[in-house]
Design brief:
The protein contains 13 helices and 14 strands. It is globular. The protein has about 400 residues and is of the alpha/beta class. The longest helix is centred in the last third of the chain and has 22 residues. The chain has two domains: about 130 residues, Aspartate Aminotransferase, domain 1 (Alpha-Beta Complex), CATH 3.90.1150.10; about 240 residues, Aspartate Aminotransferase, domain 2 (3-Layer(aba) Sandwich), CATH 3.40.640. The structure holds pyridoxal-5'-phosphate.
């Protein structure tokens, strides 16, 4: 293995770089999770967690990956055989669909080309046709991490409201929470699924469910089997500052520090920062003469950009060269995008110069891989960064 000096550039779309402040917070002695200090931590933490989801209602924190939080959202609200309407926006929407089917749900999967988000017009048509209200839930991945496409949740909500359809709205914000504007309560989402290792700048290991009153009511009659994921026992314990089983104590220290950092910067400023990074990245891609995978400018992701390499070039070869030469990790093409795209993560703990370095590494890697590009791309990105 080549020895590298300096810090590794972790520019995949999650897990993201963990700030030193958060690492230091995690590196504290583990305390008794049934003692008074722990209760104090939880009771301080939970309102801060709600704020990042844009809700005043409870948010469940699981010791889990994002996949666990997906499962929790389904098993707490639905019953065997229930119909779920889902959109094929990319790899993660496809995985969530597979999970729902394995759990015994019937998924109506709206096909997609992996370059667009969930279509509110198609949703309106499907809901209008569902006069018997067979669809129990609509699931949407807010930010498709495999494609860099962000679905328009307020328009999805509006389609449900216009149709006066009672289906629950379940939204995955795994790669948008804490980096792209998101409002659980205002947008009328019933369950928002999140996790720790992306916009929240933590290591992997925490999953979240933000829940509405309607979702809570649904959980009282939902019949899918569940035990570990059961909301009610967690909510009861949380009231006293505890969890029904051993929580990820040290990750919770880190979560508090990360949330304090987001509060210090202010969520609107955090979102604007990510919007700028994304605009600069797209300027570089276009300047190079390459194509951004997302095909609708209303749906550009602010947390990552998927880049089509084009021609006969292998996107994974570009990534390998960049890793070997410049010690930088980029996201691979997932599922049917394998070899065709690489993904630049620009979310979490990074600044203008981190992004400038990232794009410089990508430009040099493309050149070394023999992809014909215009080296003016980097300059175009720097101009976006310099402008504000
Ligand atoms: N949903 C989205 C949008 C994701 O990006 C990911 C992982 O990257 C997941 C779900 C699954 O999360 P995890 O890998 O933490 O289980």
């Amino acid at each position: 293995m080549t020895a590298h000096s300096g810090r590794h550039f972790l520019q995949i779309p999650g897990p993201t770089n963990v700030p030193d402040r958060v690492l230091r917070a995690i590196a504290q002695p583990t305390i008794d999770h049934r003692g008074p200090d722990f209760a104090e931590l939880t009771l301080d933490l939970l309102p801060r967690v709600r704020a990042v989801f844009g809700t005043s209602a409870p948010v469940i924190v699981y010791p889990s990956s994002g996949t666990g939080a997906w499962e929790a959202a389904l098993v707490n609200t639905l019953s065997p055989g229930d119909h779920v309407l889902a959109f094929e926006t990319g790899h993660f929407a496809s995985l969530w669909r597979e999970m729902a089917e394995r759990l015994g749900l019937t998924v109506e999967f709206v096909p997609g080309d992996w370059r667009h988000g969930a279509d509110p017009v198609v949703l309106a048509e499907r809901l209008a046709a569902d006069t018997g209200h067979r669809i129990a839930a609509v699931t949407v991945v807010h930010n498709e991490t495999s494609t860099g496409v962000t679905s328009r949740i307020p328009e999805i909500r509006a389609a449900l409201d216009t149709a006066n359809h009672p289906a629950l709205l379940l939204v995955d914000t795994i790669s948008s929470l804490g980096s792209i504007d998101y409002r659980h309560e205002q947008w009328g989402v019933d369950v928002t699924v999140g996790c720790s290792q992306k916009g929240l700048m933590l290591p992997p290991g925490l999953g979240f469910n933000a829940i509405s009153e309607k979702a809570l009511a649904a959980s009282r009659t939902a019949r899918l089997p569940r035990s570990y994921w059961e909301w009610s026992t967690i909510l009861d314990s949380n009231e006293q500052g505890f969890f029904p089983y051993t929580p990820a104590t040290n990750l919770l220290y880190g979560l508090r520090e990360a949330l304090v950092m987001l509060e210090e910067e202010g969520l609107p400023a955090v979102f604007t920062r990510h919007d700028r990074f994304a605009a600069a990245t797209r300027a570089a891609v276009r300047g190079w003469g390459l194509e951004v995978l997302c095909a609708d400018e209303r749906e550009y992701s602010s947390s990552l950009t998927a880049v089509l390499v084009g021609g006969a070039h292998d996107a994974d070869k570009v990534r390998r060269i960049i890793l070997d030469r410049f010690d930088m990790s980029l996201g691979t093409g997932l599922g049917k995008l394998s070899g065709r795209v690489f993904r630049i993560g620009h979310l979490g703990d990074l600044n203008d110069l981190t992004l400038a370095g990232t794009l410089a590494g990508v430009q040099m890697g493309l050149e070394l891989a023999g992809v014909t590009i215009d080296p003016g791309g980097l300059q175009d990105a720097l101009e976006v960064l310099r402008a504000e």
